[in-house]
Design brief:
Elements lengths: L2 H13 L3 E5 L1 H7 L11 H12 L12 H13 L10 H15 L6 H13 L4 E4 L5 H6 L3 E4 L12 E5 L14 H7 L5 H11 L2 E5 L6 H12 L10 E6 L9 E2 L5 E5 L2 H34 L3 H9 L1 H12 L8 H20 L5 H14 L9 H15 L10 H10 L5 H14 L4 H7 L4
Parallel strand pairs: 1-2, 1-5, 2-4, 3-4, 5-6, 6-8
Antiparallel strand pairs: 7-8
Helix pairs in contact: 1-11, 3-4, 3-5, 4-5, 4-8, 6-11, 9-10, 11-14, 12-13, 12-14, 14-15, 15-16, 15-17, 16-19, 18-19
Length: 451
Amino acid sequence: MTRQELLNRICNASFNGCLGLFVGAGFTKAALEGSNDYEAYSWKELLRQCCKKMEVDETIVNSSMSNPEIASCICREYTNKKGNPDVNNYEKSVEKLKRIIADKVTIFPEETEKVKYVNYFKSINLSWVITTNYDTVIETFLEDRAIPIGPEDFFLKRDGLVPVYHIHGIRFSPQSIVITNEDYAKYFRPNDYRSARLPFLIKESLVLMVGYGLGDLNVLTAVDLAKNVYSDNGESFPIVQLVYKGDGFQSNPYQDPSGIWIIEIKDIPSFFEELIATKDLAEKKRKEIEKSLNMCNDIFDNPTDPTIDKFIDDETYRNQWIDVVKSLELEYNSVYLHFESFCRKVFKKCRIREAPSCAFDAYKVHLKVLLDLMKIPFRKMPISFFSFLASELDGLAYYIGDGNGQSWAANETWKEDASSIPEEMLYQLKQYNAGKGRYYTHLTEILGKIK
């Protein structure tokens, strides 16, 4: 996949309301780059600040322990420290550590940076944000559209609003912060809501990861859950991770061993500018498509008699229209409503042609139109449109055969061309027929002739 193709996938996900943002500490660092008053901390830098405030030996941070283990060790050291008013009270030490963290991440970007990022996020339609950050910088950029959600809260969705799910806690609720070994033990409980919710969100959306390094444990865990807990059904959304490379970034994206698509970037602002430029072009193209489809809908809703006749009699013309409908993505499914209206007029004209005595060839033409329409993939058409086609075929089936009063020409066409009905469509016709029972005996009969 090229860089442009991947950017287009991101834009399409944004248009269709299925773009999710995974935000890490690197995002906050980039957003505060122009600030003189605040510092954005990495996890180890944050723990070092806690050591200073709690007057615990900072060398703990340099140990080979994991960060949660270091956090727990700081609290134990503070618990046993002489002069500590909460001596021998580990829970109080943990509370103090979390309050310090909450204070340190109470940060807000400079106005110039804020305006820049606010404009970025106004241009991109996000379905949700998941963040491992304790700060609320992302909420600042989303302004009144943001719904901050802590790790103990349910994942809320409201029309026009963006839920920001802080899976490791949020600064204005220090007790929610996930930092120590004990916190993570709770996090990985089998019935933990966060662990259960994440793979669904990732599976159902295109995920753009911003502010994480390659090999970040949070990234790898989330991807593993999405890929291995729930299998794919059809084409899945890609997971895209931005990796900061400065001026030496590689243009073409690539996949890492875990299947994540990597886009190397100069910096986060330049990426958003590139994405928005792509979105503007895509939006222009979508408007052109919508304009063309509106013209098609007008033809479908108000067809002239010559148009209906040409659709029936000219196979090339008919398949050109069918190809247009087949090519539509799911977001344009409303076209089927107009197309069905047109097809009803087509079949009405077919029945008028069949009305005179011995007009047996008209049944053959009617059948050919139906068979061509059944080449539209079942998965792409609304169920209502499929039901319409199945019902029309059942009505025609009575006249398909080699008996008296039946169209032998239509029967030969059925023998020759029915096998071209796509397998999935044929299976659904049989299921539909079975559901109708004895009322659809004619459809049962002709479906039974297919070898």
